[in-house]
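Form 7-S
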Amino acid sequence: MKLENAITDAVLVSQYLRGEESSLEVLITRHKQRIYSFIYSKVLDRDITEDVFQDTFIKVIRTLKRGKYNEEGKFLPWVMRIAHNLVIDHFRRNKRMPKFSSSNSDFDIFDVISNGQESTENTMISEQVREDLRRIIQELPNDQKEVLIMRMYKDMSFKEIAECTDVSINTALGRMRYALINLRKVIDKHNIVLTN
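Output:
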Protein backbone atom coordinates (compact mmCIF):
# COMPACT_ATOMS: atom_id res chain seq x y z
CA MET A 1 0.00 0.00 0.00
CA LYS A 2 1.41 3.35 -1.04
CA LEU A 3 1.95 5.97 1.62
CA GLU A 4 -0.33 8.48 -0.14
CA ASN A 5 -3.24 6.00 0.06
CA ALA A 6 -3.00 6.16 3.86
CA ILE A 7 -3.42 9.95 3.88
CA THR A 8 -7.04 11.12 4.18
CA ASP A 9 -8.66 13.51 1.72
CA ALA A 10 -8.94 16.12 4.48
CA VAL A 11 -5.19 15.99 5.13
CA LEU A 12 -4.45 16.24 1.40
CA VAL A 13 -6.75 19.26 1.10
CA SER A 14 -4.97 20.91 4.05
CA GLN A 15 -1.58 20.19 2.50
CA TYR A 16 -2.72 21.66 -0.82
CA LEU A 17 -3.98 24.78 0.93
CA ARG A 18 -0.54 25.15 2.54
CA GLY A 19 1.02 25.15 -0.92
CA GLU A 20 1.80 21.49 -1.54
CA GLU A 21 0.56 21.28 -5.13
CA SER A 22 1.29 17.54 -5.36
CA SER A 23 -1.46 16.86 -2.80
CA LEU A 24 -4.08 17.95 -5.32
CA GLU A 25 -2.58 15.57 -7.87
CA VAL A 26 -3.01 12.72 -5.37
CA LEU A 27 -6.65 13.71 -4.78
CA ILE A 28 -7.39 13.86 -8.51
CA THR A 29 -5.70 10.52 -9.14
CA ARG A 30 -7.50 8.94 -6.19
CA HIS A 31 -10.97 9.99 -7.32
CA LYS A 32 -10.60 10.37 -11.09
CA GLN A 33 -12.19 7.06 -12.06
CA ARG A 34 -15.26 7.51 -9.88
CA ILE A 35 -15.89 11.11 -10.92
CA TYR A 36 -15.15 10.43 -14.59
CA SER A 37 -17.49 7.38 -14.59
CA PHE A 38 -20.24 9.40 -12.90
CA ILE A 39 -20.00 12.18 -15.51
CA TYR A 40 -19.83 9.71 -18.40
CA SER A 41 -22.90 7.83 -17.11
CA LYS A 42 -24.87 11.07 -17.46
CA VAL A 43 -23.56 12.54 -20.73
CA LEU A 44 -22.54 9.34 -22.60
CA ASP A 45 -19.86 11.15 -24.60
CA ARG A 46 -16.12 10.93 -23.89
CA ASP A 47 -15.25 14.43 -25.16
CA ILE A 48 -18.00 16.07 -23.10
CA THR A 49 -17.00 13.94 -20.11
CA GLU A 50 -13.39 15.18 -20.42
CA ASP A 51 -14.59 18.80 -20.60
CA VAL A 52 -16.90 18.48 -17.61
CA PHE A 53 -14.22 16.61 -15.63
CA GLN A 54 -11.68 19.38 -16.29
CA ASP A 55 -14.24 22.09 -15.50
CA THR A 56 -15.03 20.27 -12.25
CA PHE A 57 -11.44 20.41 -11.06
CA ILE A 58 -10.96 23.98 -12.26
CA LYS A 59 -13.92 24.87 -10.01
CA VAL A 60 -12.48 22.74 -7.18
CA ILE A 61 -9.12 24.55 -7.43
CA ARG A 62 -10.73 28.00 -7.55
CA THR A 63 -12.95 27.23 -4.57
CA LEU A 64 -10.03 25.88 -2.55
CA LYS A 65 -7.80 28.86 -3.40
CA ARG A 66 -10.54 31.30 -2.37
CA GLY A 67 -10.78 29.53 0.99
CA LYS A 68 -14.45 28.63 0.39
CA TYR A 69 -14.08 24.88 1.01
CA ASN A 70 -15.65 23.83 4.32
CA GLU A 71 -17.02 20.36 3.69
CA GLU A 72 -15.48 18.89 6.85
CA GLY A 73 -13.60 16.05 5.21
CA LYS A 74 -16.32 15.17 2.70
CA PHE A 75 -14.17 15.94 -0.32
CA LEU A 76 -15.53 13.34 -2.76
CA PRO A 77 -19.25 14.11 -2.21
CA TRP A 78 -18.42 17.81 -2.59
CA VAL A 79 -16.59 17.21 -5.89
CA MET A 80 -19.40 14.93 -7.10
CA ARG A 81 -21.91 17.70 -6.39
CA ILE A 82 -19.83 20.14 -8.44
CA ALA A 83 -19.67 17.59 -11.29
CA HIS A 84 -23.43 17.01 -11.00
CA ASN A 85 -24.14 20.75 -11.28
CA LEU A 86 -21.80 21.11 -14.27
CA VAL A 87 -23.55 18.22 -16.04
CA ILE A 88 -26.89 19.98 -15.47
CA ASP A 89 -25.36 23.21 -16.81
CA HIS A 90 -24.19 21.30 -19.90
CA PHE A 91 -27.70 19.96 -20.58
CA ARG A 92 -29.26 23.36 -20.03
CA ARG A 93 -26.81 25.04 -22.43
CA ASN A 94 -27.16 22.42 -25.13
CA LYS A 95 -30.93 22.34 -25.00
CA ARG A 96 -30.94 26.14 -25.00
CA MET A 97 -33.54 25.81 -22.30
CA PRO A 98 -35.41 29.09 -21.93
CA LYS A 99 -35.69 31.13 -18.81
CA PHE A 100 -39.36 31.62 -18.09
CA SER A 101 -40.55 35.11 -18.88
CA SER A 102 -42.24 36.97 -16.08
CA SER A 103 -44.45 38.69 -18.67
CA ASN A 104 -46.30 35.43 -19.31
CA SER A 105 -49.52 35.81 -17.34
CA ASP A 106 -50.22 32.06 -17.44
CA PHE A 107 -46.89 31.30 -15.78
CA ASP A 108 -47.21 28.66 -13.08
CA ILE A 109 -43.90 27.99 -11.40
CA PHE A 110 -44.97 24.49 -10.38
CA ASP A 111 -45.64 23.39 -13.95
CA VAL A 112 -41.90 23.02 -14.43
CA ILE A 113 -41.63 20.21 -11.91
CA SER A 114 -43.93 17.66 -13.50
CA ASN A 115 -42.65 16.48 -16.83
CA GLY A 116 -43.40 12.95 -17.87
CA GLN A 117 -40.00 12.11 -19.33
CA GLU A 118 -37.77 9.91 -17.21
CA SER A 119 -34.40 10.31 -18.92
CA THR A 120 -31.35 10.76 -16.72
CA GLU A 121 -30.86 14.35 -17.79
CA ASN A 122 -34.51 15.23 -17.14
CA THR A 123 -34.38 13.54 -13.74
CA MET A 124 -31.23 15.50 -12.80
CA ILE A 125 -32.69 18.76 -14.05
CA SER A 126 -35.99 18.13 -12.21
CA GLU A 127 -34.07 17.48 -8.98
CA GLN A 128 -32.17 20.74 -9.47
CA VAL A 129 -35.41 22.64 -10.17
CA ARG A 130 -36.97 21.24 -6.97
CA GLU A 131 -33.90 22.26 -5.00
CA ASP A 132 -33.95 25.75 -6.53
CA LEU A 133 -37.66 26.08 -5.73
CA ARG A 134 -37.21 24.99 -2.12
CA ARG A 135 -34.47 27.57 -1.72
CA ILE A 136 -36.36 30.48 -3.28
CA ILE A 137 -39.61 29.67 -1.46
CA GLN A 138 -37.71 30.26 1.78
CA GLU A 139 -37.17 33.89 0.70
CA LEU A 140 -40.93 34.60 0.70
CA PRO A 141 -42.65 36.37 3.59
CA ASN A 142 -44.09 33.79 6.02
CA ASP A 143 -47.77 34.44 5.23
CA GLN A 144 -47.16 34.01 1.48
CA LYS A 145 -44.94 30.97 2.01
CA GLU A 146 -47.59 29.34 4.19
CA VAL A 147 -50.37 29.78 1.59
CA LEU A 148 -48.16 28.66 -1.28
CA ILE A 149 -47.07 25.47 0.53
CA MET A 150 -50.64 24.64 1.55
CA ARG A 151 -51.92 25.17 -2.00
CA MET A 152 -49.12 23.60 -4.03
CA TYR A 153 -47.67 20.94 -1.79
CA LYS A 154 -50.64 20.02 0.41
CA ASP A 155 -53.21 20.49 -2.39
CA MET A 156 -55.57 22.43 -0.13
CA SER A 157 -58.40 24.51 -1.55
CA PHE A 158 -58.42 28.26 -0.92
CA LYS A 159 -61.46 27.74 1.33
CA GLU A 160 -59.46 25.22 3.43
CA ILE A 161 -56.46 27.56 3.48
CA ALA A 162 -58.65 30.47 4.60
CA GLU A 163 -60.14 28.39 7.42
CA CYS A 164 -56.77 27.01 8.50
CA THR A 165 -55.05 30.42 8.56
CA ASP A 166 -58.10 32.27 9.93
CA VAL A 167 -58.30 34.76 7.04
CA SER A 168 -60.83 35.42 4.29
CA ILE A 169 -60.70 33.54 0.99
CA ASN A 170 -59.81 36.81 -0.75
CA THR A 171 -56.87 37.31 1.60
CA ALA A 172 -55.67 33.75 0.93
CA LEU A 173 -55.98 34.35 -2.84
CA GLY A 174 -54.12 37.66 -2.51
CA ARG A 175 -51.29 36.04 -0.57
CA MET A 176 -50.99 33.35 -3.24
CA ARG A 177 -50.91 35.98 -5.98
CA TYR A 178 -48.18 37.94 -4.18
CA ALA A 179 -46.25 34.73 -3.49
CA LEU A 180 -46.12 33.97 -7.23
CA ILE A 181 -45.18 37.57 -8.07
CA ASN A 182 -42.40 37.49 -5.48
CA LEU A 183 -41.16 34.10 -6.70
CA ARG A 184 -40.80 35.57 -10.18
CA LYS A 185 -38.78 38.47 -8.73
CA VAL A 186 -36.48 36.08 -6.85
CA ILE A 187 -36.03 33.95 -9.97
CA ASP A 188 -35.07 37.05 -11.96
CA LYS A 189 -32.83 38.39 -9.19
CA HIS A 190 -30.84 35.15 -8.95
CA ASN A 191 -31.08 34.47 -12.70
CA ILE A 192 -32.42 30.98 -11.95
CA VAL A 193 -33.15 28.86 -15.00
CA LEU A 194 -36.23 26.68 -14.63
CA THR A 195 -36.75 24.14 -17.36
CA ASN A 196 -39.70 22.22 -18.70
